[in-house]
Structure formats: C-alpha cells, structure tokens
Amino acid sequence: MPVPLSIGLVAGLVAAEAAIGAEINFVPEGPEFAAATEEYQAIWKAEGDLIVNALQKATGLVLEPGPIQAIVYEGVSYSGYRERPMRMRASYPSDTKRATLVHELSHRLISDVAPRHVDQHPVIFLFVYDVWLELWGKEFADAQVAVESARRGRYDYESAWRDALALGAAARAERWSKLVAEWQRP
Ligand SMILES: [Zn+2]
C-alpha cells in the first residue's frame, strides 16, 4: 500500500528531526542543591538541543532520547548508564556545569558502541574538546581542559587531555571515525 507507506516515511523523518533534544530530569539530592538544580535545568532548557546536536554531529552517533535522570549533589560527576542516573556536582561554576554535561553525555553516547574494556576518556576526548569549541569557543574549551586536567584521583585526566590535544582536530576526527568503524563492523 504505497500511500500509507509514504505517509509513514514522512512521519518518521519528522519524528527523527523533532527528537534532537534529549530529555534530562535534574533532581536535587537534597534541598540544599535546589539552586544548583535550577541552574542545570536552565542550561539544559536554553542549550540542551544545541549540545545534543553538536555531539551527534561530531560523532555520527545518536544520543538516547531519555528521559535521563540526573541527580544534582556534591560529589564526583558520573554519566550513569541507561536507567542508572547521571550524577552532577552542584558546586561547579556555570561553565563547568556546561562542560561536564557534554563530558558525561559523551560517556553515555559511546557506552553502547565502545567495547566494555575500553578506557573511555581517550575516546571521548577525541571529540569533547571540539564540541566545547563549537558551542562556546576556544577560551571556554581551553579553560575546561585546564579544569579537568587539574583533577586528581583515580584517573590521569591530564595525560589523556595532553594526548588528545597533541593530535590536532583532523587526527582526532580521523581516529574517531576509524574506532567507530572498527567497533561497528559486524
Ligand atoms: Zn569521564
């Protein structure tokens, strides 16, 4: 039945275009995080579509539509996975809230594509800097690399960032394409 088929196709295209922004429900872990939660909500309302769009453009991957649960609290930020909520640090300055949303969503974006044993940071750093750059400019991107590089703990962000930036944009994009092609090979 050609007519319903073509209608279905058009509806599918419209739905795909409309599905660009992912839904994130930011929830404070306690009343003391209400203001930080409102800030995350405002960022997401104003820039969520742009963020998702830039991530998808840079990677060729499609982010889950959500709703993604995100708990705002005072602790290390985590991406979560599917039903497991994201956790976002309340006390970051506004720019680092934005940068960290891109960072944690990048983990979610690759989590069903990258093999489990893969160290995800060298992978997401192949596009996170370039997404920051596109959305908020070089000053922002360089400042957030410095913020992440200063983090001390179980992971050496400084080395991972140094290696990613040493490649340059073209080599980062090329390495990313090769990795994705490798992982998606049947
Ligand atoms: Zn991370």
Structure, described:
Helices cover 61% and strands 8% of the residues. It has 8 helices and 3 strands, in the order H-E-H-E-E-H-H-H-H-H-H. The chain has helices at residues 2-18, 34-59, 94-110, 120-124, 128-136, 138-149, 157-167, 169-184; strands at 24-28, 68-73, 86-89. The protein has a 3-stranded parallel beta sheet, with helices on one face.
Quick description:
The protein has helices at residues 2-18, 34-59, 94-110, 120-124, 128-136, 138-149, 157-167, 169-184; strands at residues 24-28, 68-73, 86-89. The chain has 186 residues and is mainly α.
Contiguous helical run count? 8
Order of helices and strands: HEHEEHHHHHH
Distance between the termini: 33 Å
Major sheet = 3 strands, parallel
Q: Give the uncertain stretches in residue-range form.
A: 1-19
Approximate strand percentage: 5-15%
Strand tally, please?
A: 3
Q: What value does the average pLDDT take?
A: 90
Helix content: 55-70%
Q: Spell out which ligands are present.
A: zinc ion
Helix/strand structural class: mainly alpha
Strand order of the largest sheet: 1-2-3
Query: Outline, from the CA principal axes?
Result: globular
Computed Rg: 18 Å
How many separate domains?
A: 1
